[in-house]
FAD-linked oxidase (Streptomyces vietnamensis), 460 residues
Amino acid sequence: MTSTRPSALAGAFQGDLIGPDHPEYDTFRRCFNRDHDQHPALVARCTGPEDVRAALHHARENVLGVSVRGGGHSAPGYSSCDGGLVIDTSPMKRVEIDTDARTGRFGAGLTWGELDAATQEFGLAVTGGRVSDTGVAGLTLGSGSGWLERMYGPTAASLLSAEVVTADGRILRADAEHEADLFWGLRGGGGNFGVVTEFEFRLHPVGPLLYAGLLLHPRSAAGALTRFYRDFMEQAPDEVTGALALISAPPAEFVPEQVRGEPACGVIVVYVGDVAEGEKALSPLVEWGDPWVRMVGPMPYTAVQTMLDAGTPVGVSEYFKVDYLPELPDEAIDTALAQAEGITAPLTQLIFCPMGGASRLDADHMALSIPPTKWVYFCLAIWWGSDGRERHIDWTRSFHAAMRPWATGTSVPNFIGGDEGTARLRNSYGPEKYARLVALKDRYDPDNVFALNQNVPPSG
Ligand SMILES: Cc1cc2nc3c(=O)[nH]c(=O)nc-3n(C[C@H](O)[C@H](O)[C@H](O)COP(=O)(O)OP(=O)(O)OC[C@H]3O[C@@H](n4cnc5c(N)ncnc54)[C@H](O)[C@@H]3O)c2cc1C
């Protein structure tokens, strides 16, 4: 390793260079997940593809490891590193929307909150993350699950093209006709093949008002409610979406004071379509039981997209397991509820999301593999600081193990942890897609410059 001083890059570089002496070093070196606390040699805040090219050149010349950052939400902490170079694409916030064609070009540094605000000016949207400060870049490349997925598929299903800087510094535009293999790989292959500087999406008419909201029931109702929710969702039209979550009642004003912090069962309801039709379609679920909180009505899509924000404030620590469930039989529900009794941290969320609809796609035309299951669970242990870390991780692993009889044992790449190994990634893609990804890696990144991610190593 030779010089890592910011001045070594300064000539060719338009953006900010943040080294350990910079007053904002801590802001830019940190990931969302504070369980990962890394100290890179340099953060290169890139303004466009030329900056990315210069940063990659600098990393190569100085034998620096590279991590790539969009919104910084990588739960396994891949968007920072120790002693290496962070290629930070978050300054790229350009937005260009063609309302007639219903398409848009978006800088790789946008968050979902920023993209949603821009597209909703025209009543348009693309499937986006459920927490608004998640980055467009990482989510599009490696998972793309959101409230719109039953209607419009995962985010990558709406990707039309991407501008990419490859490991050797080429600036390419990949779409279905140009660099088609690379385009296939960017739709679900994660950050393995290059640094994306711009995404072009097909946009869909959504909102601006949707019928949506949340219900909060006591945990004692969870057994009956989860069964009702399963039966309701499994026959619901694609417009109906949402999630059921085992959580602690949040300390929020809308929650009655006496139940704050108590074990609860929350239900998010969203109807992606006409407000009046949504009210009718969701009424059996909204009217069910005697919830502590029933807060459902017409609301802006941009508000729907922030409903979960307060549950994962910046600065928390997180450990997760995510898996698909072909079915959700009563035994699986009872097992999940029994496991939930042992939750070790009050911010922890155990979320069940319905799949189906357009998320059921048989996606040969993209790297992303979503099995044809009815459910996916997100087991997210969330805590502050480092207190009880091992306990929280052990609980998450024990939940995952207990649910194994009903699970596929697979996940999309963004939800595969750093401790889960290549085998789970390989199984999740399946052998054919994985082999194709390795061939792509050999072609576009044979030296594995982009290794800090859910990595597909080159064959060599
Ligand atoms: C609170 C929270 C909520 C979430 N909600 C959802 C959800 O609703 N749906 C869902 O699908 N996922 C969700 N996720 C997971 C999320 O999709 C991934 O963590 C994703 O990687 C975050 O993208 P980012 O740009 O913020 O991440 P970053 O940490 O910036 O990047 C993650 C990885 O993506 C790659 N990457 C980032 N930017 C680029 C780029 N410009 N070019 C090439 N590669 C790049 C790199 O490999 C990087 O390591 C959530 C995560 C968190 C922490």
Q: What stands out?
A: The domain at 95-206 is CATH 3.30.465.10 (Uridine Diphospho-n-acetylenolpyruvylglucosamine Reductase; domain 3). The pocket of flavin-adenine dinucleotide is lined by residues 31-32, 67-75, 78-79, 89, 108, 129-131, 134-135, 137-139, 141-146, 190-191, 195-196, 312, 414, 452-453 (CB under 6 Å).
